[in-house]
Amino acid sequence: MNDFAIIWSHRDSVWVGLLNTLVLIVLSGAISIAVGLLLTPVLVGSHKMLAKMVQFYVDAMRCVPFLLFVYLIYFGLPSAGLRLSNWAAGALALVLYNSAYMAELLRGAWLELPASILDSGRSFGFTGWGLLRHIMVTPMLIRALPMIGNQLIQILKDSAFLTVIAVKELTHELNGIQSTYFIPFASFITALILYWIVCMVMEAMMGSFEQFAASRRP
Asked: Can you tell me the distance from the alpha carbon of 103 to that of 101, in angstroms, rounded to the nearest whole number?
């Protein structure tokens, strides 16, 4: 119990790590969804060259280990003249990596929508981005909600890898405590519990959204 007392005495650091983790989830999750929405019409569009380029990006992100991608962003970009802070590099890695997954799952949601939705939008004169913004976004997001929820939880788990570039997220802060006081069990079980709580809250929120959307799903 003395080990957990040490954790409690450093609760301010743990809170900073938890807050940074939550900010990373919200920021990278929101941007990833937005980028995914922008890429989806290209993936399903008639412009073959653009579709192939976006599909290459999606496939590349899905095949590259996230940890290796973090190293590439943080250590590789400075070689190209672009130097980012560890926090900015971590957030950028999360966004670029998960935008590909969001685009792919939203593409699937688009293709599963009844053709009548697309036809009705075109009959009202909507095309291109106007069709996406006014007609397709809402039913597409409603249909994709369970998959989006799963991907947001994946972002939560991916954020723990950012400790390798010293981003002060939850794993980094608790690992710092355990390496200082040599209390690995107390430190890591605390991290696991906090990740589990955040995950349960996210699942509860997504469950509420899904219940609301169930009656509106086309």
From this structure: 5
